[in-house]
Design a protein that fits this description.
2 copies of one chain form a homodimer. By secondary structure, chain A is an all-alpha fold. Chain A has one domain: Orthogonal Bundle (Farnesyl Diphosphate Synthase). Helix content of chain A is about 75%, strand content about 0%. The first copy, chain A, has a two-stranded antiparallel ribbon with strand order 1-2. In chain A, strand 1 and strand 2 form a beta hairpin. In chain A, helix 4 packs antiparallel against helix 6, helix 12 packs across helix 15 and helix 15 packs antiparallel against helix 16. The radius of gyration of chain A is 20 Å and the shape is globular. The two termini of chain A are about 15 Å apart. Chains A and B meet through helix 2, helix 4, helix 6 and helix 7 of A and helix 2, helix 4, helix 6 and helix 7 of B.
């Protein structure tokens, strides 16, 4: 899937390490732990690929932006892990588990700042700064909304879509759009890339929410049914709340702040029987078709092929 | 002290409110609570004053930068309050106390992002972006160092100065320097302003650390002797560790992670008898003299007068 940018991604790994270098060994250790904890590098990959569609493509010019995007993503994960009290992510100990909440909060701030410092050094068009800072405030807003509206038996699918837009789709949109923007793609290509990133982002988060209901802790590297227990109502649950005969029982569980694992398992059973999971999978597939359809023929064939492969991957992923 | 920029500061209050406006009422409420919780507005005041020394001074140009500086300061305080588990600041409930840690972490991220988005909109010279992102990573580094080196009987005053440089002095330095920079002061004025900001910042933090030992919770609006109990060794304590006959007893207290209020009170007594507090006050006064001496005669008289008044205020403040 990332064949075209294999070398770019290996350079990215080096830049991630150098970006967070400090004169203090304790800070190096913290930064190294979190930046090397893995991940799919999806956001930088989207930027690196999309840049290859531009007339002014330069690897030197796009790599710092790609690095900044991954640093920002890592920062938000560090903060999310504090909020969720998560011990592991991708099977690796979180900052809050390996050190403490202080280190995870400050480590996240450090990575945010390093990302902006990377962008500032490159003298990109101010639009890049603007889009990225706007993205981060949207991410935070999305998470705040998720928190202030937890444990509510949500039936409105649009509220859910607005939340996952801010939480995930905006980020993939910005990554895909800015990569090409920096490399001088046309205005209409820029819009198409943004729409593509948005659509795969929506599909990605819907799939994530389905996996949280289907998978066990082991394959996910984080606790399963985490959303339910945390009071976060996702698409399969919304479907069941609207369509299941047992929607009253389900509503009682999702609004219960002292929900047990047994209750969560009963909720999952209700959702499964209602067809909510199939519905969510169909919605994800619909978003992926939107993503494929929006890509113009004016972009290089190999870039388009890679974008298609990413859409396929998101449709099939089970981890 | 802020007579010259009284009107600017009242415009700043409006901008702080508008800067954090969201389409979501819950986010407005959170942002309003934290930005209106008061504070001396020292950082924006320094930027607003210093800008008045520039040939290209424009109030419209400097206000967004001043707003961004206060937003960043507020963001770091929100995160600090989570880390310290503080319930009040300036006598007002903290975000973590009024809502929860989640809201305080995400609220801080939201304010950071809004600050960068403000700066991006103004199209300042990239040097502004660079200095500010570098400042934030330094702030986080300073706090991480404070955390990873807590509960150590520190005797080296230079380690302390390096820490408070990152924690406080860098911020006042950047505020004073960038205000003038944006308004076109000369290179040598820029250096002088940076040195002034640094020196008052050092004095400010030393004074803060003295107050933490001298004052009660009521006058500070936060728990007194907080540093000692948290394992943070400040200048008066370092002096006593080097000079008191009871330095062994003091070392045993400051390295004890289960320190009680009674132990902290005994430590304060040892520090007071050693002359550590007088020493720290003299050091603060020395920094303030450095600050006054470094200001050039080329800057407008009323700006210089205001800078002197700020130095006087920091020397005399007892809250």
């Amino acid at each position: 899937m990332f064949e075209l940018i294999k070398e770019d991604l290996s350079l990215l790994e080096n830049m991630l390490l150098n970006a967070t270098k400090s004169t203090e060994e304790s800070i190096n250790e913290i930064a190294r732990h979190v930046t090397l904890a893995g991940g799919k590098r999806l956001r930088p990959a989207l930027a690196l690929l999309s840049a290859r569609a531009g007339q002014n493509y330069s690897r030197e010019k796009i790599l710092p932006l790609a690095t900044a995007l991954e640093l920002i993503h890592t920062a938000t994960l560090a903060h999310d892990d504090v909020i969720d009290g998560a011990d592991t992510r991708r099977g690796v100990a979180t900052l809050n588990a390996k050190w403490n909440n202080q280190i995870a909060i400050l480590g996240g701030d450090y990575l945010f700042a390093k990302a902006f410092s990377f962008i500032a050094k490159e003298h990109y068009d101010p639009y890049v700064n603007y889009r990225i800072s706007d993205l981060i405030s949207n991410l935070a807003e999305g998470e705040i909304l998720q928190d202030t509206r937890a444990y509510i038996a949500l039936k409105d699918v649009n509220v859910y879509y607005e939340r996952i837009k801010r939480k995930t789709a905006d980020f993939l949109e910005v990554a895909t759009e800015l990569g090409g923007f920096v490399a001088g793609i046309t205005k209409s290509e820029q819009e198409a890339f943004a729409a593509y990133g948005h659509a795969i982002g929506m599909a990605f988060q819907v799939t994530d929410d389905v996996l949280d209901m289907e998978e066990t802790s082991e394959s996910l590297g984080k606790p399963a049914a985490n959303d339910l227990v945390s009071g976060i109502v996702t698409l399969p649950v919304i479907y069941a709340l609207n369509n299941s005969e047992r929607s009253g029982e389900l509503a009682a569980i999702v609004t219960d702040r002292h929900q047990t694992i047994e209750m969560a398992e009963r909720a999952i059973e209700i959702v499964q029987k209602s067809g909510g999971i199939e519905f969510a999978k169909k919605e994800a597939a619909r978003f992926l078709n939107e993503a494929r359809d929006v890509l113009p023929d004016t972009i290089p064939k190999e870039v388009k092929k890679s974008f298609f492969m990413i859409a396929d991957f998101i449709g099939e992923r089970n981890f």
